[in-house]
Amino acid sequence: MSFLAPAGFAALAIAIPILLLYMLRLRRREVLISSTFLWRQVVQDTEANTPWQRLRRNLLLFLQLLILLLLALALARPFITVPTISAGKIALLIDASASMNAKDVDGESRFTAARERAHQIVNNMNPQDIISLIRVAEVAEPLTVYTADKNELRRALEAMTVSKGAGDWDTALTLAAAGAAGAENFSIVMISDGGVGGAASLPSNIPQPIYVPVGHSANNVAITALATRSLAGGAPQLFAQVTNYGDERAEISLVIRLDDVLRLSRSGVAPARSQLPIPFAEPITEPFETLSATLTFDNDVADYLSLDNRAWTVRNEVSTRRVYYVSGAGNLFLEQALRSLPGIQTFRGNPENRGLPAAVFDLYVFDSWLPNALPAGDMLLVNPPNSTELFGLGPALGPANQFELGVDESPITTFVDLDEMSLLQYRAVSADWARALILAPEGALLLTGEVDGRQIALLPFDLRDSNLPLLIAFPLLMANLVDWFSPADIVPLPESISVGDVLSISPPLLADRLRITLPDGTTRVLEIGDEPLAFTETDQLGLYRLDVLQGSDVAQTQAFAVNIFGASESDIAPLPEAELQARLGGGAAAAADEQLGLQEFWMLLAAAALLLLVIEWIVYHRRLRTPTLLRQSNRRLRWRGR
C-alpha cells in the first residue's frame, strides 16, 4: 500500500495536546472534614490534586486517538494499484439506448450494470488521468468535459438516465474521436451491449475503442409491426407482427384494444429467431381512432425487455382526392399526368360551360380556361387567359432557356431538374400573395401561395410552348404539386415514428397555436410564427394528441404514435467484441490488462472515523450523567445479587 499525500500523517501531531490534556489535572484546595464516609468520590478525585499524573486506561482517550489515526490515514490517501480499463485521456461512452433496459444482469438492468462499471473506472483512475462522459441515447451528449475531478464524474453518472430510443453512435464516436487531438495517451471506452446499429467506421488514426460488454442473453419477444390500412369508405384492415429474437420458441398472446377498450386477441407460437405474422382476416367494423396492442406470454417464456411488448397506431385511411379538370386547349400532357397519379380521381369538365358544378372537389385544375367565378377551393392554374381579382397578367415575355429555383428546399421543386428545359414565351404575373418557386430571366414560371384558406399554384405559360412535358421533371413537378395541394395532415406522418424523431408540423392557416399532449399526460404549447414548426420531444413511447387551437376552441385534432419497431433495439443479443471491432474499424486497440489504476480507501477511513466519533460522543455524555440515590441503590442491589 502506498500514499498519495503522505504529508497527511502530520495530523498525528495533534495526539500530543490530547495526551497532555489527559495528564494535566487542576489543583484543588484542601479542606479538613470530620469523616470521609460520605465523600468517597471526592477522595478519589484528590488523587488528581497534582498538576501531572501518569496516564491511566481511559476509553475516551483510546477512542479519540483512534479517530485521529483514521483521519490522518484518510488525509494521506492510501491506495493500491489495480488493473483498469484504460489510463490517460479517456472518452467514456455509456450506452443509454432502449436495449439497455433489458434486465438480464442479476435481475438488474444493463444500464445499471453499465453505470457500475463506469463508477469502477472513475474510482480506479490515476491522478493524471482525465475522463469525459458521453451519454449515448437518441441524442449523443457529453455530460462532462475532460476532467480529473472524481466527484464531478460521480455526480454525472448518478444523474444519468436510460432512454427508450436507439443510440446515436455516429455522433457519439465523432465526439469521442475529437478528444484525440493533442493527446499522447488517448482511449475510447464503450460500455454497451454492442447495439451500435449502422455506426460509421472510425478514422484510421483513432485507436480502436475498448469494449466493455454488458448483458448476456438474447431472449426477447417484441411487437415489430402494427398498422391499419383501408381504402376510401372501407373498413380498416389490421396488420401485426411479432418477432422472437431469443433462442427458444415462445407461446404468445396479442391483445388488441380500440380506444383503450379490449376488442380482439390472438395467440400463437413464435419460433426461435423468427417472425410471426398475426392474422386478422376480418376488417375492423367498429369505429375507433387509436389502436394499441399488448404482448403477453406463458410463465416459462424469458423476455428481458418489456418496452417493446406494447405498440400503438392510429387509424390510417387511404383517401382518394377528387380533381375537377377543365382545359380550353385540350392539353393531353396535363390530363395524362393527373390521371397517372395514385389516389387521384379526375373529373373532366366542359370548357363551353363557364359555370362550376355544385359538387365540391379537393382540387380544381384550369388549363387555358377560367370560370366566371373562381371556386373557393384549391386551384392549379395553367396558362390563365385573363387577369382575375387574385392576380394580374402582364405582357408576353421570352423566349427563355435558363431557369433557377427561387426558393431553396421547397417540396414542390424537389428533384425537379430544369437544365434541359426551353420555353417559347410566358406571361408576367403580379400577385402579392404568391412566392416565385421557378424563375426565368424576366419573370416567374411557377408561383404558389395561400389566399383566404385556398392553396393556389400558377404556371403563366402554355405547356405546349415548352419541352417541359417531354422531360422527366414534368411528372415529378405535377406529383409534388398535387401532394402540396392535398388536404394534408397537421403532421405528415411516416410509416413509423421512433423515439427521438423530429416531426415537421404544418399548422392550418388560421391556427393560433398548437397543443400537444404527451403519453404521460403532460402538454406542450407551440406558438405559430413565420418559421416552420418542429416537434422534438418524442422521447416517450405511446400515443400523442395534437390539437389546433383557434382562440380557445379546438379546430382540429390529430393523433400519432411513437413505437420501438426494428431489430436495432429489440434484438438484445450482446455483440461479440470481434464483430464490434470489425464494424467500427479504426487503429489497434489498447490492451486493457496493461493498464494500472489506483484504488483509494480514504472514504472508508473517513466513514470509520465518523462512526467512532459518534461512539465517543455517546460514551462522553453517559459519563456526564449525575449520580443519584436511586442509581446508587440499584448498583448495590445488583452487587448483592451477584
What's the shape? elongated
Q: Which ranges are low-confidence, i.e. pLDDT below 50, for 5 or more consecutive residues?
A: 587-594
Give the fraction of residues assigned to helices.
10-25%
Strand numbers in spatial order across the main sheet = 16-15-17-18-24-23-22-20
Euclidean distance between termini CA atoms = 50 Å
> What's the CATH C level of the largest domain?
Alpha Beta
CATH architectural grouping of the largest domain: 3-Layer(aba) Sandwich
CATH topology of the largest domain: Rossmann fold
Overall pLDDT score: 83
The proportion of strand residues reads 25-35%
Q: What can be said about the biggest beta sheet?
A: 8 strands, mixed
Task: Give the count of structural domains.
Answer: 5
**What is the CA-based Rg, rounded?**
40 Å
- Structural class by sheet pairing and helices: alpha+beta
CATH homologous group name of the largest domain: Class I glutamine amidotransferase (GATase) domain
Total helical segments: 12
What's the count of strands?
A: 31
